[in-house]
Amino acid sequence: MINPADPTRITTIERHILEEQYLYPEATGALTNLLYDLALAGKIIASRITRAGLLDVLGRAGMVNVQGEEVMKLDEFADHTIINLIDHTGRVAVMVSEEHIDPISIPERYPVGNYVLVFDPLDGSSNIDFNVSIGTIFAIYRRKTEDGPGTLADCLRPGNEMVAAGYIIYGGSTMLVYTTGQGVHGFTLDPSVGEFLLSHPNITIPQAPKYYSANQGYELYWSAGIRRYTHYLQGSDGQRKRLLLRYVGSLVGDFHRTLLSGGVFYYPSDSQDPHKPHGKLRLLYEAAPLAFIAQNAGGYASDGTRGILDVQPESLHQRTPLFIGSRDLVEKAEQFIREYDQGLPVTEMGEN
Ligand code: FDP
Fold first, then answer.
1. Which pTM was predicted?
2. In the prediction, which pLDDT does 65 show?
């Protein structure tokens, strides 16, 4: 954000993160530097994405990731960029990436740190070929074990133990949005100076929601509760003013819009694939970081029955249904699920 009275007084992301650190005199600076490493990774990935067509990196790399999906070249690039920028810094004990089946250890020649980084290097990758917004999602935890290499137990943590989370969206412009629990702040990359500048301080989800967002192509496979909830959002059951539909199919893009405009994004479980009874999105590095951001912006995220931040992960790549955005709309989804999918009496639902 540029001060018109003095355009030299700009708030860079580095300054903003440092000023948050000064609130904690005991802080070592490791978290500050880790966040700044991620901002740098975002700049490098953004620059590569911008030149993707020219560099001929679009298309598949011919490999299959741990989720059984084809890996694209940009996914690998983003994954390697983050790991290579962070593994030698002495700031993290272990990392988790969507692209790696196991936790990523710190090479023995480097010091281990006190933090755990989980990330989805390039989310929404099915959109890469179509020049649609994609993003990087991350969350940071303090390690649980005392010392030595980080362990699986350091990684399998409920979101309510998170110390920071954020995402970088590569769209018309590149933006980084993060929170350490002190408000949610958005920075826009100014390509002319090569730095993220504060553009959206203290983001809160607007009171009046605008959009709902879901892939209605799956409606046939949705439960009765989800179908009725969708009709509620559309205003077709006469209970509320209708919301408009927007769906990008890139979680970061759909979440970013929901955060700024109000509304709800949901990717529920469906009956399409019996091997994926919990929807598609990953708990650890997709749902939980965005849930932490939503909560710090006055919103809420649920798996349909409980807060996402309360879910204890059992495995690194666990999937979860996700309902996220304006608190009242997410709570309404929980109510519809309770009434129509779990058969609880209406008296337990409160008003609907
Ligand atoms: P993608 O497969 O393109 O990587 O988690 C992956 C994700 O995208 C999310 O970004 C997005 O919200 C969702 O999947 C889209 O899934 P559908 O194509 O099933 O709607």
1. 0.92
2. 59
